[in-house]
Design goal:
By secondary structure, the protein is α+β, with helices and mostly antiparallel strands. The protein has a single domain, classed as 4-Layer Sandwich (Double-stranded beta-helix).
């Protein structure tokens, strides 16, 4: 049985993240009064076909908790793609055109490994707080990351990933700030973020600047969240540059307060999925070769933010 305690859920929604193990579909929730609710389904192994009832339980946990993960999985690239497709269309990431799995172009390789002097995947991916492909007109619904190799130093796992709840951040805003943000739209620019591998001009041209609501509403749960990223947001409609920069910085700092953050320590075989509307994330870059990190990423298609 695996479980993870999450500060933002415990303090703000009195729920725990759902963690799904290899042998059973376990969704444990601990409540402040000591009650514990648990669901088990012995059929959950992602290498196998998942029946509709089990998938519905997984999807509910995903909506309830925004970050869930499966321990001790042993899946092939086609099996990861098939599981991702259960949630709808797959979004093809632009960097998959350079670094994808042979035969599975839906999967982006995230890795610091080089072979024959060339990187086999995206290096230093996501080292700053962000939501995946927020610069697109239809940002992806969610992302899955499957751990094949985890960097270790004398047995200590490195390369954690942190997740910040933008929904909890919205709930904690004072009412005056909520009113100030209501109806405002931020400008997102693909060229705004610094990357280890700078995009080509052709790639930049495919993603012209777009605007999204700062007070974004989740399409299914209807929860509101703060949809602002320090590196990707280059302005706010109707605001002067200095004023917009100050507001973006204040909101970005608010989202990643410790009370809203969960830090995931990876194990080989973890498949973790998160909601790109109600969660931001960043990869901790505390390792380098000879410590190797190798992950496979798939992304679910999304809709125009509300």
């Amino acid at each position: 049985m695996y479980r993870v305690r999450c500060t933002w859920c415990r303090r703000l929604s009195r729920q725990e993240h759902g963690v799904i193990s290899r042998r059973t579909t376990n969704v444990d929730r601990d409540y402040s009064d000591g009650r514990r609710a648990r669901r088990r389904d012995p059929r959950c192994r992602l290498a196998r076909s998942i029946d509709d009832e089990t998938f519905a339980a997984i999807e509910r946990a995903y909506y309830d908790h925004a970050v869930i993960f499966f321990r001790d999985q042993h899946i092939t690239p086609p099996q990861q793609v098939a599981f991702t497709r259960r949630f709808g269309e797959i979004e093809f990431n632009i960097f998959g055109e350079r670094w994808s799995v042979p035969g599975s172009p839906e999967i982006v390789v995230v890795s610091n490994v080089t072979e024959d002097g060339r990187p086999i995947g995206v290096r230093r991916a996501g080292e700053n707080w962000h939501s995946d492909m927020c610069y697109a007109s239809r940002p992806p619904r969610g992302t899955m990351l499957y751990a094949l190799e985890i960097p270790k130093l004398f047995g200590l796992a490195l390369g954690d990933t942190e997740f910040a709840s933008t929904a909890a951040a919205w709930d904690a805003l004072p009412e005056r700030m909520r009113q100030h943000l209501d109806g405002r739209r931020a400008v997102f620019d693909f060229a705004g973020r610094k990357r280890a591998f700078p995009p080509t001009q052709a790639e930049i041209d495919r993603y012209p600047p777009v605007t999204h609501p700062i007070a974004r509403t989740h399409l299914v749960t209807r929860r509101k969240c703060v949809y602002v990223m320090r590196d990707d947001c280059t302005g706010i409609e109707g605001m002067e540059g200095r004023e917009a920069e100050t507001l973006i910085a204040a909101l970005a700092d608010h989202i990643v307060k410790p009370a809203f953050v969960y830090r995931h320590q990876w194990r080989v075989g973890d498949l973790l999925m998160w909601d790109n509307c109600t969660v931001q994330h960043r990869a901790i870059q505390d390792y380098d070769l000879p410590q190797r990190r190798l992950m496979h990423r798939t992304t679910m298609g999304g809709t125009v933010p509300l």
